[in-house]
């Protein structure tokens, strides 16, 4: 039986949005955040598969995605000033 992540329903909605979007900075950051969240999680196989598909479609490996998003965070306050969004890094 597959485990259900506590954020899986909300994350599924975000992954669906990402699947229909372009690799802009915010989307890359969300892809990296979700990749980290589901790393080693024994469940949510469809989300994990879609995250890998997005990486491939957008031309990134995990290593290059993390390097790119580190640079994005360094240069731009991605989550600051967005009071309408509650970030949950769990």
Question: Which helices and strands, and how do they pair?
Answer:
Blueprint: H1 8-19, H2 25-38, H3 45-57, H4 62-75
Helix pairs in contact: 1-2, 1-3, 2-3, 2-4
Provide the structure class.
Answer: mainly alpha
Tell the overall outline: globular
Backbone CA Rg: 13 Å
Number of helices: 4
N-to-C CA distance? 22 Å
Kindly state the percentage of residues in helix.
55-70%
Number of domain units: 1
Query: How many E-type strands?
Result: 0
Provide the β-strand percentage band.
Answer: under 5%
Largest sheet, described in full? none
Average predicted confidence as pLDDT: 89
Order of helices and strands: HHHH
Low-pLDDT residue intervals, each spanning 5 or more residues: none
Explain how this protein is built.
- With 90 residues, the chain is mainly α.
- The protein has one domain (8-75).
- The chain has four helices and no strands.
- The chain has helices spanning 8-19, 25-38, 45-57, 62-75.
- Helix 1 (8-19) runs antiparallel to helix 2 (25-38), helix 1 (8-19) runs parallel beside helix 3 (45-57) and helix 2 runs antiparallel to helix 3 (45-57).
- It is globular, with a radius of gyration of 13 Å.
- The model has no long low-confidence stretch (mean pLDDT 89).
């Amino acid at each position: 039986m597959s485990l259900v992540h506590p954020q899986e329903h909300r994350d599924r909605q975000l992954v669906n949005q990402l699947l229909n979007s372009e690799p802009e900075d915010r989307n890359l950051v969300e892809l990296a955040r979700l990749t980290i969240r589901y790393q080693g999680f024994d469940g949510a196989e469809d989300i994990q598969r879609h995250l890998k598909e997005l990486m491939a479609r957008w031309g990134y490996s995990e290593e290059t995605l993390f390097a790119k998003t580190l640079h994005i965070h360094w240069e731009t306050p991605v989550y600051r000033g967005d009071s309408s969004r509650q970030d949950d890094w769990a």
